[in-house]
């Protein structure tokens, strides 16, 4: 009997298999195995036959054996080994990806039931050995490096769990779809915020594992891009040097999705997945430059390949897994997604992780590169509208100022210079959700050696305000902070409560760019929405409405250029509200 006929019969039996007794399992396995051993089959067909036979195996041992046969097919892989739709042999990558995914899934399933740590790490090492073996057979297959990253990440997280009181749960399900969601902890692992919390106490070996996770995903991204270039052009002519190797230049790409082949579509989707995984791993390893490089490269690729629909699909799937994930929402908004633009809040874990990772280069890049002026704008507006009773100190012994979202302390420094502690007895409170920002601002000093802040708290701004006494604060300042809050109703309520009788609330808001159609529509409709920049925008109508509803007088709405975004100016406004007392 011809081998392809056996495969078709096996598929037919699959469709009629008795779900109660699975009476045809042995016959299905027999048909697939006999087909797989026939030398006339193409390599991809043999791999798929062994993989399908493994699917119907009743024991883990039998599944392992058949999947290993799939992964050790030794027929040469060349351009003559093509499928019926003449896709140039790239179908081999899909076949190996499925077989490899099945085997890695078996290992991870055993990991979930491993009682002893020794056995767990033995299983993970077995997975790494398998990656090495498959790489020898398919040295240019990026899925090998992707799965190596999956195993190393699990090894890293279990290494942390072994040295801490926190434990990490994981799911036994690993599919090609769920792997693409690793950026969002699709395995069910503890949120990235807890990982960040533990990194400071991790040992050198676990830090090394973390960097190995990044390296694995970065190599996968490199190989994926090379496969895209080869599939489209057949040759790589122009390259550039990146942090993870020599890559083909983005400028050489000009493919449209108007008529993509199934193979090029698959390769492009895989490339975007690997870029996202590499960027996420770089963030966890605190390799901020590398994270930015991957994200920028991914954005350029999406534009050049016009593959926005693939990225949107992946991030929407991400939100199904974790509806509160800020990263997925921000990325969807950057692609002009209308649903993402309607978002009105970020999770605290996302915001804290964002600024923890940004803290080391925050001030230098923001001020020197992006020409950030938000702190100056807020300080100047405060000077223009500071209540006379506060400036003269005729009725009080001290000035109390609250700086929301202190960052590195840029605004606090201007406040302190405005009312030096040695002359006006100023009390300057600060709060930030980012642990690393809090550390930097706590240690910030003026030229005379005075600390800028009296106290800096690490918590959400609403929680911070809830812990302050009523009518206690004279000035609440927030420079580029509300753009990460979104819905401002609760914050307005708490600010009004803590402000003194003539106290003021001074803050900045951001506007959509001229090209941000989705956010413009959202602001026109609801007054607040997620911009393409990944920050929230607010309309004047929205702010005026909140001010009226919560007893503020609008003293100033002044449009300003807040900073740069690439070569473009970011427009917004500085707002000054005064507490209205009945």
TrEMBL record:
Q: Does the keyword Ribonucleoprotein apply?
A: no
Q: Which domain of life is it from?
A: Eukaryota
Endpoints of the signal sequence: none
InterPro entries per record: Methyltransf_11, SAM-dependent_MTases_sf
The UniProt GO MF terms for this protein read: S-adenosylmethionine-dependent methyltransferase activity
Under which name does UniProt file this protein? S-adenosyl-L-methionine-dependent methyltransferase
Q: Per the UniProt entry, what are the Gene Ontology biological process annotations, in alphabetical order?
A: methylation
Listed A to Z, the keywords are: Methyltransferase, Transferase
**Per the database record, which ranges form the Methyltransferase type domain?**
403-507
């Amino acid at each position: 009997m011809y081998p392809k006929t056996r495969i078709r019969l096996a598929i037919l039996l699959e469709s009629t298999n008795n779900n109660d007794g699975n009476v045809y399992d042995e016959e299905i396995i027999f048909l697939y195995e006999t087909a797989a051993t026939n030398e006339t089959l193409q390599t991809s067909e043999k791999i798929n036959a062994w993989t399908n036979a493994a699917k119907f195996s009743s024991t883990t041992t039998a599944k392992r054996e058949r999947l290993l046969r799939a992964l050790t097919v030794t027929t040469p892989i060349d351009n003559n080994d093509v499928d019926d739709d003449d896709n140039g042999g790239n179908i081999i990558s899909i076949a190996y990806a499925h077989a490899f995914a099945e085997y890695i899934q078996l290992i991870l399933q055993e990991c979930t039931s491993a009682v002893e740590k020794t056995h767990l790490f033995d299983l993970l090492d077995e997975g790494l050995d398998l990656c090495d073996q498959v790489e020898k057979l398919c040295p240019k297959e990026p899925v090998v490096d992707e799965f190596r990253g999956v195993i190393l990440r699990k090894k890293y997280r279990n290494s942390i769990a072994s040295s801490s009181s926190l434990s990490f749960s994981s799911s036994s399900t690993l599919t090609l779809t769920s792997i693409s969601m690793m950026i969002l902890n699709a395995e069910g692992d503890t949120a990235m915020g807890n990982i960040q919390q533990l990194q400071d106490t991790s040992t050198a070996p676990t830090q090394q594992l973390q960097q190995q996770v990044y390296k694995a995903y970065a190599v996968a991204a490199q190989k994926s891009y090379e496969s895209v270039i080869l599939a489209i052009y057949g040759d790589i002519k122009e390259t550039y040097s990146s942090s993870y190797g020599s890559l083909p230049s983005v400028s050489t790409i000009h493919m449209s999705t108007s008529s993509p082949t199934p193979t090029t579509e698959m390769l492009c989707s895989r490339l975007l997945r690997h870029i996202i995984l590499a960027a996420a791993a770089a963030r966890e390893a605190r390799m901020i430059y590398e994270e930015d490089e991957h994200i920028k490269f991914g954005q350029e690729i999406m534009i050049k390949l016009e593959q926005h629909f693939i990225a949107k699909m992946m991030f929407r799937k991400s939100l199904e897994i974790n509806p509160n994930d800020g990263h997925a929402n921000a990325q969807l908004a950057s692609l002009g997604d209308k649903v993402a633009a309607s978002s009105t809040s970020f999770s605290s874990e996302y915001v804290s992780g964002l600024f923890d990772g940004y803290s080391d280069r925050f001030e230098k890049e923001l001020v020197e590169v992006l020409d950030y002026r938000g702190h100056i704008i807020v300080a100047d507006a405060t000077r223009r509208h500071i209540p006379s009773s506060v400036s003269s100190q005729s009725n009080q012994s001290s000035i109390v100022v609250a700086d929301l979202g202190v960052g590195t302390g840029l605004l606090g420094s201007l406040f302190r210079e405005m009312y030096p502690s040695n002359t006006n007895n100023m009390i300057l409170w600060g709060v930030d959700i980012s642990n690393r920002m809090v550390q930097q601002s706590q240690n910030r000093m003026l030229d005379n050696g005075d600390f800028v802040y009296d106290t800096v708290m690490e918590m959400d701004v609403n929680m911070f305000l809830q812990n302050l006494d009523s009518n206690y604060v004279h000035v609440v300042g927030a420079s580029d902070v509300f753009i990460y809050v979104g819905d401002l109703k609760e914050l307005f309520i708490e600010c009004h409560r803590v402000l003194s009788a003539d106290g003021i609330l001074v803050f900045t808001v951001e506007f959509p760019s001229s090209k941000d159609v989705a956010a413009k529509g959202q602001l026109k409709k609801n007054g607040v929405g997620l911009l393409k920049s990944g920050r929230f925008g607010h309309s004047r109508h929205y702010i005026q409405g909140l001010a009226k509803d919560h007893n503020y007088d609008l003293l100033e709405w002044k449009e300003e250029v807040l900073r740069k975004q690439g070569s473009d100016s970011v427009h917004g406004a500085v707002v000054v509200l005064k507490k209205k007392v009945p």
